[in-house]
Amino acid sequence: MNTTQHSREVQTLLAISSQYLLNEGSVQQYLQLWLAAQRSGDRAAQQTVRQHVADAGRLLQAQRANPQARALWLALMSLRCSMLMPRLRF
Q1: What is the pLDDT averaged over residues 53-77?
Q2: Residue 63: its pLDDT value, please?
Q3: Where are the domains of the chain?
Q4: 3-state secondary structure the chain
């Protein structure tokens, strides 16, 4: 599978599931997608997953008064911080 196909697969999966991944298992789902993108070396997929984690965090940011939403927001932000993308060397 080449990286273009993988990127499309990841983007399709994220587009369909991102609205449903805002629960306790969402952090694990995003982490699995991130690790799969890292293993394949697909930087576009990594960026897509990282962007979806950031967007999910923004959606939860307004609900931080709710303890469950706050815990999920903190978990997503922690995951986002761990998703560093090193620059490529030429």
Answers
A1: 85
A2: 82
A3: 23-82
A4: CCHHHHHHHHHHHHHHHCCCCCCCCHHHHHHHHHHHHHHHCCHHHHHHHHHHHHHHHHHHHCCCCCHHHHHHHHHHHHHHHHCCCCCCCC
Q: Which are the contacts of 36, defined by CB distance < 8 A and separation ≥ 6?
A: 10, 45
Contacts of 43 (CB under 8 A, 6+ apart): 85, 88
Is the distance from CB of 58 to CB of 23 less than 8 angstroms?
Answer: no
Contact present, 52 and 32 (Cβ < 8 Å): no
pTM for the whole structure: 0.68
